[in-house]
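Tokens for histidine kinase. Go.
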Amino acid sequence: MPQFETLIHSRSSVTIDQAHKLRELVADWQLLSDLSFADLILWVPIRKDMKMWPTGHVAVAHIRPTTAATVFTNDVIGDEVMWGNRPRIDSALSSGEIVRDSEAEQVGELMIKEEAIPVVFDGQVIAVITRHRNAELMRSPSRLELNYREIAHSLYRMVSEGFFPYKDAGSLFEPVPRVGDGLIRLDVNGVISYASPNARSAFSRMGWKSEIENNKLGEVAEAVAKNSPNPHEEGIRTRLNGKTLRRVDIDNQGATIDLLVLPLLQGEDRIGAIVLLQNVTELRRRDRELVTKDATIREIHHRVKNNLQTVSALLRLQARRIEDPSASSALNEAVRRIASIALVHDTLSTSSENEVAFDEVLTSLITHALELNPRMGELRIERKGELGSLESRLATPLSLVVTELMHNALEHGLAEQGSVLTIELSRYSNECVINITDDGVGLPKDFDLATSSNLGLQIVRTLTENELKGVLKLQSTDSGTQANLRFPL
């Protein structure tokens, strides 16, 4: 909400905590708009200091209902009114009281009723909501509309008393079921006093055959839920009694319903609750399919890793039987490369994401490289920095590139005693940089990576350019050789 943030901080004196409260309100107020069939506008007072009297108000947010036509064709965000020009907003801000149903006023072709609701935080009015409704639509309300309005009045009172948005709601409101998906109204005892047509249909699909009104919601839900309750969880009746803010799924073989329980408060007293509900049968089915798909993919990675290890073991056996040193060395290099790929698949097989914790892979690559080197006790590899998680499409070729560069340095670029190979890792917003530095004699004067006949370096160059879309440079330094690898994220 860049415009929202800019307006409240540039035109008003709200504190960081107050701004956070307003953000929470704007995140949840579609519910208020839909229940009252009204456009809502959030106004903050224009002043440089909280101790100063406001010079006016600026509109910082605007929401339109999904249950009725909007009364504003144009956005009003950014509009400013001087103090005295909108008495209802002034009165709500200064008195902390809701300024209710005024006489309808002509706005374009419509007769609009406006109300003003103070937004209270820590006992102080920090903003005002204006509610704008088409007066013509209010003359002969249905039972649904009457219930929605009564609920809306309760919620607006909670706004003026500082109880809405709910404290510590966290992720319970993500995402919020829409009013039109289904709404149930509970009395103080958890008995259903009203259920919208969509709410009744949802429970009918779950197998409830009779009218749900005048029954306790917890008992109705318990009767239709066929899943075995978790012994470590509260029972469905307790979770759906309307006393606390809760989010509950009930399911059976036929359907799944997501319920969000919102207690209604008046002062310190609980006067009932509303329950927003949504039939999420298809969503949960897709979730289960995704979980199954993820498990299948992880199993595939696990089997690929096992198969690669089998191939590696066979090549190692073959290398031991070959008397030609060059042929044996070539097979051992193939074993090393296969092991690098197997490490990536091993990491993917235990990850729930299609990403690889590359720093863990690198640790294994370093250990493996030292174990395979005949000068193991004389060598040391130091690493600095981290790369974090990388997509698997990058991790596999990168593991091969790093393996080849490490082994090339261990084989050709280190001094005899106390040798140190340094690996420096840097990750930026759009690229990664890896420097591998040895303390050897450096590169030959006529060395050219593009024309080098070394198979390992040819593999490195090909993978860097084609798979990583990066750049590799090998250069002599005062103390040895450095390989500089850069690739974009």
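The mean pLDDT is 83.
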